[in-house]
Amino acid sequence: MTNYQNAASVEELWRRMAERPGRENRELDLTLQVPLIIGCTPDARPYIMILSQKRPWPINGLEAIDVQVGSRTSPIGENWSLTFILRDWSLLHAFAEICLAFADRIRTASSRNSALREIYSTVDQWHRLLKSITHTNRQAILRGVCGELLAAEKVMRLSGRPLETVMQAWTGPYGAPQDYSFDAEHRYWEIKTVHSSARRITISSPEQLNIADKQISLITIVLDTPTNNDDKQLISLPRIIERLRQLADDPYLIGQCIDNGLNALGLDIRSDIAMHTMFEVGPVRVYDVKDRFPRVTPSMLPNGVTNLTYTVEQESIEPFAITNGKAPSALEK
């Protein structure tokens, strides 16, 4: 029996199991006094299962991990299970490290009961360490990505470029000043996802609207929390991706560009939040950033001023609007 002593080997085992989900599992280390088993659920979610002779208590409040207490019939009295199921594949490495931490705690525990207590202690420490990674932050990232991808079709139509070219120019996930960058032509598009009630737009840096050597267009797109239950009139990340693939001559390239961007953001398309979060789409407006467009540029900053973020009143940029309209055709079937 192989003992998996590093996170990479555990990750690789989960990836292999995900190819045949729900069909196999493996005990991580046969020398442990409390069995620690890893596998994948039928829907290809990595899990860690700990078997116990006494009933574990449930754990709540974890965003990326579903914790389940189960019962089973065991000839040796291990009639209970505590199972940790990963919801977000982008966190697989951290999940593997938690798995190895569980194994280390069990290995050094003085008894089966103390081993189970050590599991809860480990979860509590990781939870407190990582609780700044909130559901709200993930929701904001997802909302911004949906806005950027919805805008791809608008950029395609206004620029006259193929969708494949547009998606290869998607630089938003990589920290570029603008979200779509056609460097050879010095042509750029910045996307802002706003609420319908918003009166201001946040500009993340003086470089974002700096037209000293660029031509920049600003697109605002309204994405709101749904106010009705008509699922057909709402969008989600999977629906947007499906629409873009339908529009493309090369769907594989589109998928590759999107996957790379989502990976850069740490956003897993298979996670619950990405699969099931819906948005109501409102108007899209396009603005031409010209010399008199209200903004802060790098040349305006005094020495020593860095990392400047500022807001612009939406009303003040209306004279620069070149188009506005209904929701993008990602809603069309």
TrEMBL record:
Any Pfam family the entry gives: DUF4420
Q: Which InterPro entries match?
A: DUF4420 (IPR025534)
At the top level of its lineage, which domain of life is listed? Bacteria
What is the protein name for this chain? PD-(D/E)XK motif protein
